[in-house]
């Protein structure tokens, strides 16, 4: 293949990924900004509770049994019929219900241990509303993922963009109205309703889905669903342990300022990562069509070049903004050490996004566990060390080091895994 062919192929891939990713990027920008918005209206202590509730909202998305990825894969191969679509929406709704109930049950004990003084009734209302919004939004995300698999880019834009923009507007209005920390929950419910309503209208009806599957295809789809459920449930548990429970562990250290400083830094640094995740979503549909190991290796090489081009400038910019935001938004002294550690950890972890999506599209989401399992183990050690010593910085340093080491290792070995799967 000539250099010209390779360059044109890379450009075509970039254009295709941008088409599929832009709606998610726009929606994610709204969703990422909403938690930061609370810092402008709330005290440091109330913002700490707000930040923890925002992590719950993210956990509900992460803990989705892989239903959006599976919806994209099945829609791309024209195997997403109405019954399967409803099944995926139902599965995606289970985590917000179960985890929301669990969060409400443990909140009294946790808030006392973490010395969080927010009104308990408001905290309960916030968690309940975020859970309800999570149920609605999860179904909407499944429909948006199906639109991506079918290359219905404008429909995907409608589902994701309107949901994100509604959340931003409703949350801001609620904060201005004096609803306090509950504003986050009100905005989440409003966004979830909009995403579900639009998603069902454009991708959820019987006429919008593929025809009823024959018995052989139905059995194959059920097996795929079970594989994704088992694998993605484990992946989600590890993922939330690594990237969401860090703030809950910091809360137990008992320093609300450190938690708020870390949360602000993390939310800004996560923006480039959110952009990459959105752009890479289309890889699942592309990878489902791969037939040889050479094709898989070539696709990975092209995408990783794009990842580097996007990650480095965006991550540097986000880190700079995160540093100054600690002072501007919270009125506390910024910490360069925290920003640098978080930016490096998530920056290196961005290089795992492409191989994970390619392997998922090829039907092997379980390969991600090869680096998540040891990383989760070291993350747990970091949390225990931080809580036991009362040192939040110890927790942050050990956690970020583990993120860098295991993410880099998986990225370096991922081409071998792709060749193995497609051999």
Question: Please, could you describe this protein's structure?
Answer:
The chain is mainly α and 423 residues long. It is built from 16 helices and no strands. The longest helix is centred in the C-terminal third of the chain and has 38 residues, at 293-330. The chain is globular, with a radius of gyration of 21 Å. The protein starts with a helix and ends with a helix. The model has no long low-confidence stretch (mean pLDDT 83).
Please provide a brief summary of the model.
The protein has 423 residues and is mainly α.
Query: Main beta sheet: strand number and arrangement?
Result: none
What structural class results from the helix and strand content?
mainly alpha
Q: Roughly what fraction of the amino acids lie in strands?
A: under 5%
List segments where confidence is low: pLDDT < 50 over at least 5 consecutive residues.
none
Shape: globular
Nearest-integer average pLDDT: 83
Q: Provide the succession of SSEs.
A: HHHHHHHHHHHHHHHH
Total strand segments: 0
How many helices does DSSP assign?
A: 16
Computed over alpha carbons, the radius of gyration is: 21 Å
Distance between the termini: 21 Å
């Amino acid at each position: 293949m000539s250099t010209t062919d390779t360059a044109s192929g890379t450009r075509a891939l970039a254009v295709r990924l941008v088409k599929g990713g832009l709606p998610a990027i726009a929606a994610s920008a709204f969703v990422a900004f909403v938690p930061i918005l609370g810092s402008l209206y709330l005290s440091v202590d109330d913002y700490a509770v707000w930040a923890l509730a925002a992590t719950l909202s993210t956990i509900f998305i992460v803990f989705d049994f892989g239903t959006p990825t599976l919806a994209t894969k099945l829609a791309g191969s024209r195997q997403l019929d109405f019954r399967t679509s409803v099944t995926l929406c139902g599965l995606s709704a289970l985590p917000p219900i179960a985890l929301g109930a669990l969060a409400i049950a443990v909140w009294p004990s946790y808030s006392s241990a973490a010395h969080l003084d927010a009104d308990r009734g408001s905290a309960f209302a916030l968690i309940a509303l975020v859970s309800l919004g999570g149920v609605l939004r999860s179904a909407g995300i499944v429909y948006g993922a199906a639109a991506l698999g079918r290359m219905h880019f404008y429909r995907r834009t409608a589902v994701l963009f309107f949901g994100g923009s509604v959340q931003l507007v409703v949350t801001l209005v609620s904060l201005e109205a004096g609803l306090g920390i509950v504003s986050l929950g009100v905005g989440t419910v409003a966004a979830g309703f909009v995403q579900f309503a639009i998603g069902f209208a454009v991708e959820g009806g019987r006429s919008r889905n593929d025809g009823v599957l024959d018995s052989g295809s139905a059995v194959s789809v059920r097996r795929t669903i079970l594989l994704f459920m088992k694998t993605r449930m484990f992946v989600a548990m590890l993922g939330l342990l690594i990237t969401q429970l860090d703030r809950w562990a910091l809360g137990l250290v008992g320093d609300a300022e450190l938690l708020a400083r870390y949360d602000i830094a993390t939310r800004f640094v996560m923006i480039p990562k959110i952009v990459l995740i959105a752009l890479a979503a289309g890889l699942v549909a592309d990878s489902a069509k791969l037939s040889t190991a050479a094709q898989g290796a070539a696709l990975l090489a092209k995408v990783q070049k794009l990842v580097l081009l996007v990650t480095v400038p965006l991550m540097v910019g986000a880190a700079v903004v995160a540093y100054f935001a600690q002072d501007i938004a919270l009125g506390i002294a910024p910490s360069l050490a925290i920003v640098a550690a978080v930016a490096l950890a998530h920056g290196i972890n961005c290089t795992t996004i492409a191989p994970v999506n390619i392997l998922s599209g090829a039907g092997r989401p379980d390969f991600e566990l090869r680096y998540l399992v040891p990383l989760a183990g070291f993350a747990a050690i970091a949390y225990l060390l931080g809580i036991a010593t009362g040192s939040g910085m110890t927790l942050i340093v050990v956690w970020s080091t583990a993120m860098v080491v295991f993410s880099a290792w998986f990225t370096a070995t991922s081409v071998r895994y792709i060749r193995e799967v497609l051999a």
